[in-house]
Predict the structure.
Amino acid sequence: MATSSNAKPSVVRLTLGAAGMLVGAVVGWGTGRLVKHGALDLSGAGWSDLAAGTIAAMLLASGLIIGLATFNPRLAARIIDPAGDRPARPSQVIFYRQQAAVLALAGLMMAAPVVATLVLAPLPPQLGQAIMAGVVALFLLQTLLNLTVWTRADEMMRQMIAEAGSICFWVLQGGLFLWAAAEKLNIAPALSAWDLMTILMGVYLVVSSVLSLRRGFN
Amino acid sequence: MKNRLKVLRAERDWSQADLAERLEVSRQTINALETGKYDPSLPLAFRIARLFGQPIEAIFDDGEA
């Protein structure tokens, strides 16, 4: 009898949800401790710092969970494909690890400037340059891994990535134009490059998640 | 676009993962194809047709015929 799935997606979702909540609780507890002991002063953080920090934590947690799961091929297969019915093959494990690394590196890149400016304020220029060099190195590595993921992905995944990019471009270029016009007319506050990057990442994550759900990824 | 992928797969007693492996795509892609959430590229449609030994139009129906 041919079956599409022998798995129990709800169990996998619950496990993933529990793992996500556990990581979130640890990160939240750690942040709370840092704030309480004065090591982290969030009073100077803008909305984009907090949003970028949250997105970075989500990306890091996702990368960490998927990366750790790849050490168990059956678990790895269930996390990437909850309705799947067989363990991940070695080539799939490598592919999942690359995707996990892309997520984790994206999280690190987003977190580094926020954490550095909050924890090390006032940030000495030389330290800022050193951190920037690290961010550039992470960016180059992440770009390389992203290209690898693109070339190894199948055609539907590539189409979803391309669609997400197209939708984000059209939505955000419209939004950017309208905001720029409003800013020029002195009826909207100016946005920083960091604000714009945070909005872009947030919109991209939402759009790519919606597209994935529409295609049956869950 | 409608297709007979699920029927053809069931006739051969293949799971979605079996078919995905034969076509070198993900299981999610097979699921999306079967549920009409994704239309294959022409190269993938040809691979599917060759795998099942049938012409493309015998597997896929764009509703125009």
The longest helix of chain B spans residues 42-52. Chain B has a mean pLDDT of 92. Residues 23 and 44 of chain B are 8 Å apart (CA to CA). The first strand of chain B starts at residue 2 and ends at 3.
